[in-house]
């Protein structure tokens, strides 16, 4: 009896150990993740923050090996690599994929529309999150927005831009289809350059000016060395969103609990990123001023003209693509709804007050 009992106990212990090993092996997913940003661009910190947080929160279930942009493949290839499952995940800025669908553009940024808090509100409570899933879902991916930066720096270059009149004939590095259309109506011409090419383009006079990111990111990219003038505000990108593309099959292999942990990490990173980038922007601005950069502020009249043209461009784009229209319709509906509270809370409101918005009726007519 003793022998049988001992054998049974030994067998039971072995079975429990084997089951535990099998459970661990089954639950442990190994992901490779890269990003569009190389190590020398500070935006990579947002991607790293999320990956490290996931490894802390869900390390028993999924481990992410994070690789800087360009170490596995060119940044332009991460969309296709994630879609096909060559890698499980990649950090991005949605606007880079506007060639696949123009709807990616407002998911990334807006011209003279949303600020950072608007994106946070819209994503979390006004239907934005679902639209990211709808757009990226067409390409076999789940999307977790996890980074928000407020308005970008503006244009930097070797000649001052003090008013809209100074844009006439200027060749300016600018990202985004809608942004380029607005610039062209203002008299300038859009030049498309990768972030790593901007420094030399300004230095050699290939462009008259350029935008890239927030002041903190711009300063660390060395733009103070080649650009004496800085035109503000950054109307072309009134806020920006970053996130992670996840291959659908890789996502489906995770338990619902693990998926929730990845979402929690994204929400935490999104809140952190907004405060982090504002601190970095403040410190970057101080350093630009210390280096002698001259800041030129556009007038209220100029900003009103930019808004007028922006509204026309948004409606134009909406009428060219139904999904583009759907995203902008949701954004403008949010602004109109939120105005019921926002406008009575001035001057402590968290979103800018504007009565001049793109026409919902015109957008609806094109949907």
From TrEMBL:
Keywords: Signal
Pfam families noted in UniProt: DctP (PF03480)
Gene3D superfamilies: Bacterial extracellular solute-binding protein, family 7 (3.40.190.170), Periplasmic binding protein-like II (3.40.190.10)
Keyword Methyltransferase in record: no
Domain of life: Bacteria
Name the record gives this protein: TRAP transporter substrate-binding protein DctP
NCBIfam families with a match to the protein in the record: TRAP_S1
Signal peptide: 1-27
């Amino acid at each position: 009896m003793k022998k049988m009992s001992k054998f049974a106990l030994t067998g039971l212990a072995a079975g429990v150990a084997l089951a535990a090993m099998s459970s661990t092996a089954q639950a442990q997913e190994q992901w490779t993740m890269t990003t569009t940003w190389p190590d020398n661009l500070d935006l990579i910190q947002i991607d790293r923050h999320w990956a490290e947080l996931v490894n802390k929160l869900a390390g028993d279930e999924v481990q992410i090996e994070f690789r800087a942009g360009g170490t596995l493949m060119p940044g332009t290839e991460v969309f296709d690599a994630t879609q096909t499952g060559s890698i499980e995940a990649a950090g991005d800025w949605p606007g880079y994929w506007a060639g696949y669908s123009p709807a990616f553009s407002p998911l990334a940024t807006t011209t003279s529309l949303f600020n950072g808090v608007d994106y946070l509100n819209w994503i979390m409570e006004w239907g934005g999150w679902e639209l990211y899933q709808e757009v990226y879902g067409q390409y076999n991916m789940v999307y977790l927005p996890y980074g928000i930066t407020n308005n970008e720096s503006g244009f930097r270059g070797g000649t001052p831009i003090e008013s809209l009149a100074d844009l006439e004939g200027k060749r300016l590095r600018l990202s985004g289809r809608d942004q380029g259309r607005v610039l062209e109506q203002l008299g300038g011409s859009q030049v498309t350059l990768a972030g790593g090419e901007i420094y030399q383009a300004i230095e050699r006079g290939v462009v008259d000016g350029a935008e890239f990111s927030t002041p903190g990111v711009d300063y660390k990219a060395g733009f103070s060395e080649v650009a004496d003038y800085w035109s503000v505000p950054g109307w072309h990108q009134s806020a920006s969103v970053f996130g992670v593309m996840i291959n659908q099959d890789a996502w489906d292999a995770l338990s619902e609990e693990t998926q929730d942990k990845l979402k929690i990490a994204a929400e935490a990173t999104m809140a952190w990123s907004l405060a982090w980038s504002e601190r970095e922007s403040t410190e970057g601005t101080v350093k630009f001023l210390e280096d002698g950069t001259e800041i030129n502020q556009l007038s209220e009249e100029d900003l009103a003209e930019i808004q007028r043209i922006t509204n026309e461009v948004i409606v134009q784009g909406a009428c060219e693509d139904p999904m583009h229209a759907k995203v902008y319709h949701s954004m403008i509906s949010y602004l109109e709804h939120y105005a019921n509270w926002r406008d009575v809370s001035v001057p402590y409101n968290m979103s800018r007050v504007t009565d001049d918005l793109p026409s919902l009726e015109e957008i609806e007519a094109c949907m």
